[in-house]
Amino acid sequence: MKKKIAFISDHASPLATLGGIDSGGQNVYVAEVARYLGSIDQQIDIFTRREDTTTPEIVEFSPNVRVIQVPAGPAAVLPKEELYMYMQEFADHMLHFIDEERIDYDLIHAHFWLSGMVAMEIKKELDVPFVITFHALGIVRRLHQGAEDKFPLQREQIEQDIMWHADKIIAECPNDVKDLMQYYHAPQEKLEIIPCGYNPDDFYPIDRKTALAHIGLTDDCDYILQLGRIVPRKGIDNVIKALAELHESFPRLRLIIVGGSLDDLNQDTELARLQQQAVQAGLESKIIFTGQKSRDELKYYYSAADIFVTTPWYEPFGITPLESMACGTPVIGSDVGGISFTVRHGETGLLVPPHAPEQLSAAIKMLQTDIAKRKKMGEYALNYVQKTFTWGHVSKQIDTLYNQVIPVHRHHKILNQLKKNFHEASQTFIRSADLLPTQITKVAQEMCNTFVNGHKIMVCGNGGSAAESQHFVAELVGRFEIPERPGYPVLSLNADNAVLTAWANDFGYEYVFQRQVQALGQAGDMLICLSTSGNSPNILHALQQGVDQGITTVNILGKSGGRAAPLADYNIIIPSQDTARIQEVHLHIIHQLCWLVETQLEGVNKHTSTTKVNKLTA
Amino acid sequence: MKKKIAFISDHASPLATLGGIDSGGQNVYVAEVARYLGSIDQQIDIFTRREDTTTPEIVEFSPNVRVIQVPAGPAAVLPKEELYMYMQEFADHMLHFIDEERIDYDLIHAHFWLSGMVAMEIKKELDVPFVITFHALGIVRRLHQGAEDKFPLQREQIEQDIMWHADKIIAECPNDVKDLMQYYHAPQEKLEIIPCGYNPDDFYPIDRKTALAHIGLTDDCDYILQLGRIVPRKGIDNVIKALAELHESFPRLRLIIVGGSLDDLNQDTELARLQQQAVQAGLESKIIFTGQKSRDELKYYYSAADIFVTTPWYEPFGITPLESMACGTPVIGSDVGGISFTVRHGETGLLVPPHAPEQLSAAIKMLQTDIAKRKKMGEYALNYVQKTFTWGHVSKQIDTLYNQVIPVHRHHKILNQLKKNFHEASQTFIRSADLLPTQITKVAQEMCNTFVNGHKIMVCGNGGSAAESQHFVAELVGRFEIPERPGYPVLSLNADNAVLTAWANDFGYEYVFQRQVQALGQAGDMLICLSTSGNSPNILHALQQGVDQGITTVNILGKSGGRAAPLADYNIIIPSQDTARIQEVHLHIIHQLCWLVETQLEGVNKHTSTTKVNKLTA
C-alpha cells in the first residue's frame, strides 16, 4: 500500500544538528523512520517549526521525504517548554499548506504532545487518522523532575485528550505501556509497543586499539564510558560516586564522560558541577571530560570503551544503550523506562537501580573481574540489537501499524458518512413536518374532490421521480392500507414505454407527457408532477397543457421549486437542496396523501373500522 | 351536521331536583341545552356522578339524550367541594364506557372545573375536543367568599390548565370575559359569550290575581319577591334592610322570600338568621317566608310579584332575573356579574350596587311610585327575554359553537397526524443509522466486486418495491451524482410488462422473477430483492433460483425479514413494522448504495475530483 504520511515534529527537526540541549533522540527517530519509509516508496512530509529564515521552507531530506518548515512563532531556536502558545498557528499553517498543495494524507504521525495537539486539529478538520509517539510523558516527567518541569500545566490534560483522539499510540517499551495506562488510563486497544532504533551504518564495532587511537587514548587503561546529554536526571554523579569506590581496587579504571560544552562552563553549569565533584572525590586524573562530540565520532568512543554505563533517574526509551550494544560494548544501565527493555540483564549487560552507586560499583566490579563474560556480553549485545533494533526493523513495524490504521479509519469514515446521511434524511423529514402538513391536506382534499366528482388523476415524473410516480399509482389503484375499498382512477404517464418511445422518438422527449395530458385529460381531472428540480421540459409542457385544459395541477418539488412552481395550483416543495433527500421525502408525502385520501373516502374512524391492515406482500 | 356530544356535569345532574344547596343553575342549564340539542337530532350523553344506587346507570332523559351515571366515590349526595378526589375515577370510568360502547364523540362539553379535569383527560387519551362552561370561577369565588371557600387549593391552577387545553371557553356574560382574561389570562380567541337561558314553557306571565290566589295571597298588598337559594352571598339581608326603610312610607308593601327549608331551621341556619333579622327589624308581619317551592310553582310567585329583587354580592350569571322577566315582572338587581348583562337598567328593571340597602330602597320606591313605568318595564322585559334568552336561542348558539370547534379540531388532528408520521419516519431513519451502516458497506462492496469482475446485477420487487427497484436501476444505469462515469450493468426484473404478463398468465405470477433469473442470470451475478415483508412467493422463487445458479443474493427487507432472509447472502432489514416507513428507508438505502458504489468505483476523493454534481432534472 503506497501511502502519503505527514509527520509532525514540532521542535525536533531532522535537519537540526544533534547534541544541543533540545535535540536528541526525537530528531534521530523522525529522521531515521522517515528516511526508511521513503526508501520503501512511501511519501513522507515532515512538518516542523521553522527555527531560522536561512533554510528554505521546503527541504528535500531524502528520497520521497520532504521537511516542511512551518512558520509558527519566532524564527529562532526556542526551548520546547515555550512552544505551546504557537501550536494553533502551526496547525493553521499546516492546514493551509495541505489545502494549497491539495494533498490527501492517508495518516499523520505526531511526535511529542505539542505535535499531538496539531494532529488532533487536523483530524478534526480533515478527518485524517493519526498515530502518536509521545517520546516523553508529562506526568512521568513531573514525577521525576517536580518543580523543575517548565511545561505548561495543561500538558497532562492535553496528553489525555490526544490519547482519546489518536487512532494508535506507539509505546516505546513495556514501562511506557504501564505509564500510559496507569497515569493516563490510555485505551489499551490503541497501544502498540514499537521501540526506538539505531542505524547500523552509524554504529558498528571498531577494533578497540584503532578506536582508542582515533580518540587519542592509550590502551593501558580500562575504560568506562558515559555518553549523552549532561543534565541532572542522567545520574552522571552516580557514576562518579561508583568510580570513587572502585578506583583504588582497579587503578587502571578510567571514566570517559562525553557530552556538554567544555568551552562555556559558565553556561553549562551541570558539567561544571560534575567536574567539581570529580575534583572533590580526588578523581580528576581518572575522569576524562571530552565535551560534546559529533555523531560520527561516537562509534569510536563506544568501541573503545569496555563498559558503557547509563544510570538515569528515568529514561522514556534511551538510544545510547542500543548504540553501545551496536558497537559490541555491554551496558550497565538503570532498571528504568526503556533501559529495562533494551538491556537484557546478564546477557547484554547488567541492570542496576538508579541513585545506587554501591550497586553500580558492584556491577562494574563484576564485569572488570570476569573479562570473558564481559566479552561474551558484548558479542551477544551486538547480535541482539542487529536483529531487533535497527531503524529498518522499527520502521517496518511502524509501517505495519499504519497499514492497520488506515483501512480501519477509512471504514469508520464511510460508516460515519452513512450515519450522517441517515441523520440528514431524518432532519429533512423534521423540517418537512414543520412546513408541509397544511399544503398536504389541501392536495389530499383536492384529490378526494376529484374522485368524488368522477374525475381521474394523472401522475408523471422522470428517472427516480418516474419510479415514485408508479409507486404512487400502485398505492391508489391498488391500496395503501385498506384493501376492501375500490381502486381509484389514477394513472402514471411515464409507465407506458411504447407511448413514451413513440412520441419521444418522433417528436421529442420534451412532449411525451404533454401529448398524454392532451389525449387522456378532461376538465376536472388532476395532474400531479413529481420533480426534484421543477425544471424538466416535459414536466413544464405537461403542466401548461393541463392548465389549458382546465385540469387541476399539483407539483411535488424540491430546491427552489424551479420553473414548474408558477404553473401549478398547488405546490409541495421539500425544504432540501439534495436530490436524494428530496426524493425520499417525496415518497413519504406520497404515503401521507394515500393515507389521507383513503381514510377520508372510506370514512375510517377508530371504532367503526379496522385495525390497520398491513400489506402481506410488497 | 349530526353530532355525538358528551356532556360532563360532575355534580349537577339533570335528574336532580332543583333547590337543594348544591343544585341550581347548572342542573337546569345542562338539562335544557341537552334537551334542545336532542330535539334537533344531536345525540347527547350526559355524564354525571352517580349519587344513589336506586336509579339505573343509564337513564333516557329525553329524545336523543341519555344520562350516564358514573360510579366515582360514594353513591351519595356529596358537597361539590369534596368531589375533587374522585375525578380521576370519574375519567377512568368514562373512558371505559366510551371504549365499551365504541362511541366516537365529536366533542365534549364540560360543565364546572371538576368536569373540565375529566375533559382534559379524555382529550389527552382520545383527542376529542372540548368546550367548557365554568359556571363559576375559583378566583372570583375566593375574592368574594374568602376563607368560606372550601374548594381545594389546586382549583385555580387547574382552571387555568383547563383554559389552555380547552378548544373554546363559554363565557356567560361580558363580566365573565373580564374575569377570565384578568384573573386567568385566558386566551382571548377561545372566549365566546353565550348566556344562560330560561324555558318559556316553564315561565310565562299569569294573571296577577290568579297567581296571587294560587299562592294564597290577597291582592290588597304590593309584593316584592326574593327567590333563590338561601345563602349569605345572595344578599337577602340587604333586601330586608331596604324594606325596613320603606315599610312606613309604603305600608302595603310586603316581601315574599321563597327558598330554604322551613321544616328544619336547625339545619338551615341562614334562613333562621334572616327570620331573626326580620323580627329584630319589626318586619315579621311584612315578610312572608314560604320555604322552598317546586319548580312548576315558581311562575306563580314571579307573576304575583310587582317587583323581583336580587342583590347578591356577586353572581356568575343568575337565572332568576330571566325567569322573572319571562313572567313579565321587572327586576331590581345588583350591578354584578351576569345581572349587569341580563337586566337592562331603566328598560327591564334597575341596577343597584350590592351591599347598599339605601340605593335598593330608593329603586323600589321609584317603581312603587311610578306604576306606569313599572308596568312598561315588565312588558319590555318579557319581550326582551323571549327574543334573547330562551334555551332555544342559547342552545342554537352553543350548537353553532360546536360546529366551529369540530372541523377546526379535526383539521388540527389531521395536521398533527401528518407531523407524527413525518417524525415517525424520521425516527426510523435514526434507528436505521444505528443498525444498518456496516451491512450497507458490505453490500456496496459486493456490488463493486460484481461490476469489477464483469458481472451484472438484477433487481426485483412487487408494487411499491417494484417502483423502487426501477428507481435503483435508474440511478445505476444512469447516474447518482457523477454523470461522467459509464453506466453499470443493472436491470430490473419487474420492468418489462410483456415478459411479466406472458409468464404470469401462462404459468403463474409466482414464477415471473424466477424465470428471468434463470434466463438472464450467470454465476457471479448478483440478485437484489426488495420486499417489506420478505414473504412474496415470486421473490422466494427468484432467490432460490439465484442460489442454485451461483448468484450472490441480497435482500432489502423490513419487519422480521420473513422467509426471504434465510435464502440470501446479505440481508438489510429496516427496523420497522410499517410498510410505508420501510419503503421510505429502502429508498434511502438505495441512495446510500449508489453513493458508495459510485464513489468507490470512480475513485472519488475530496481533492482530485468533483464538487458534487446535482441532477439538473429528475
TrEMBL record, chains A, B:
Binds 1 zinc ion per subunit. GO terms for cellular component: cytoplasm. Pfam families: Glyco_transf_4, Glycos_transf_1, SIS_2. Its cofactor is Zn(2+). The keyword Cytoplasm applies. It is found in: Cytoplasm. PROSITE patterns: SIS (PS51464). Zn(2+) binds at H471, E475, Q583, H591. Its main location: cytoplasm. Substrate binds at N462, G463, G464, E475, N505, D506, S531, T532, S533, S536, Q583. Its EC number is 5.3.1.28. GO terms for molecular function: carbohydrate derivative binding; D-sedoheptulose 7-phosphate isomerase activity; glycosyltransferase activity; zinc ion binding. Catalyzes the isomerization of sedoheptulose 7-phosphate in D-glycero-D-manno-heptose 7-phosphate. The reaction produces a racemic mixture of D-glycero-alpha-D-manno-heptose 7-phosphate and D-glycero-beta-D-manno-heptose 7-phosphate. This is Phosphoheptose isomerase.
